[in-house]
Amino acid sequence: MTGGAGTGSPCAALLGHTRAAALELVAAGCTTSELARRLNVSPATATHHTAILREAGLIASNRAGGSVHHTLRSLGEALLRGDPEAG
Questions:
Q1: Which distant-in-sequence residues (6+ apart) come within 8 Å of 11 by Cβ?
Q2: pLDDT at 81
Q3: What confidence tens digit (pLDDT) does each residue in 35-54 have?
Q4: Do 27 and 72 meet the contact criterion of CB atoms below 8 Å apart?
Q5: Which residue, 15, 37, 55, 58, has fewest beta-carbon neighbours within 10 Å?
Q6: Does residue 68 carry a pLDDT above 90?
Q7: Residue 70 forms beta bridges with which residues?
Q8: How far, in Å, CA of 74 to CA of 44, rounded?
Q9: What is the mean predicted confidence (pLDDT) over 10-32?
Q10: With DSSP H G I counted as helix, E B as strand and the rest as coil, what are the percentages for the chain, rounded to 5?
Q11: Whole-structure pTM value
Q12: DSSP code of 85?
């Protein structure tokens, strides 16, 4: 299995293309607004995607003032790497 969230990747097959792209963008750290802009989706849609990724234990989200900043958790990093030993 190869890593990454590109089209045709196992990550995209598992999560869907938009959510896999969101996970890859979160790897660099971003806010919900940044994520929405970079994915070309509404802030509400970006919030929905981050909620699902957070519930799956792939990302962590922290509120700072009026923004929510998202970062990868170790499971999200392992999924992007295509690490079959993660768990």
A1: 3, 4, 5, 20, 23, 24, 79, 80, 82
A2: 86
A3: 999 999 999 999 999 999 99
A4: yes
A5: 55
A6: yes
A7: 30, 61
A8: 25
A9: 89
A10: 50, 15, 30
A11: 0.83
A12: T
